[in-house]
Design goal:
The complex is a heterodimer of chains A (about 80) and B (about 130). Chain A is mainly β and about 80 residues long. Chain A has a domain at about 25-75. Chain A is about 5% helix and about 35% strand. Chain A is built from one helix and six strands. With about 130 residues, chain B is mainly β. Chain B has one domain (about 10-130). Chain B is about 5% helix and about 45% strand. The longest helix of chain B is centred in the first third of the chain and has 4 residues, at about 10. Chain B is globular and about 45 Å long. The chains are: A mainly beta (about 80), B mainly beta (about 130). At the A-B interface, loops of A face loops of B.
Chain lengths: ~80, ~130
């Protein structure tokens, strides 16, 4: 899934994603109107830049569905007060 | 439809709904149903549209929605922006409407837009009607 921007497994010792933050993701609609999200590695990823407009997910019907991106959601802090 | 014969002031104000009629052919013919994105001219031959009515033609079966006085979809499936051309030929976007309501109409806040750019989320098809003076 190169469109998501992931290139290689993280090396041992790499800092983990900070606790309480949710990664950036694109939001897409599949052919049935269900909303799915795909986590995107970098802002240079094809899904984020728009070079790629669809991503594929495995749904609960055990089939692959192609989702069309219609929204981008930046990484954000979900820490509770 | 005949060209507008109202006074100058009237040309810049939007008539109330009881003075308007729906049209599929004026100012430009509509090719319903619409999907995806595109542009529609909002005037032709001196006839101007004063508003746009929309109603869902088809919607995806599994789209999240709430059945209230009408269906309200969780994800706003329709967006349209009005383009205005200024005296110096600048093309500026004025009002933008974003709606998840199954039906509704929008009277242009400022009359005489030049065109309307619409975007409909994948899976939905929408029926448009112009609101014009009879």
């Amino acid at each position: 899934m190169p469109e998501r921007g992931w290139v290689t497994p993280a090396l041992p010792g790499t800092y983990v994603y900070p606790r309480g933050w949710t990664p950036r993701r694109v939001v897409g609609l599949d052919d049935r109107g269900k909303v799915y999200e795909a986590v995107v590695a970098t802002t240079a990823a094809p899904l984020w830049t728009g070079a790629s407009t669809t991503f594929t997910i495995n749904a609960t019907d055990e089939l692959s569905h192609t989702c069309t991106v219609f929204k981008r959601r930046a990484e954000r802090n979900k820490l509770k007060p | 439809m005949s060209p507008i014969t109202a006074g100058v002031i009237d040309l810049f104000s939007v008539p109330p709904p009881d003075q308007l009629v729906k049209s599929l052919v004026s100012p430009i013919a509509l090719a319903n149903p619409y999907s995806g994105s595109g542009n529609l001219a909002t005037h032709a031959g001196g006839v101007y549209a004063f508003g746009l009515h929309w109603a869902i033609n088809t919607a995806p079966a599994e789209a999240s929605r709430s059945a209230r006085s009408l269906l309200i979809y969780a994800e706003p499936f329709l967006s349209f922006s009005l383009h205005y051309v200024l005296a110096d030929a600048s093309d500026f976007i004025g009002d933008t409407v974003l709606s998840g309501y199954a039906e509704g109409f929008y009277l242009f806040q400022v009359a005489k837009p030049d065109s309307l750019a619409y975007n409909i989320l994948p899976g939905w098809t929408v029926h448009f009607d112009w609101l014009v003076q009879p």
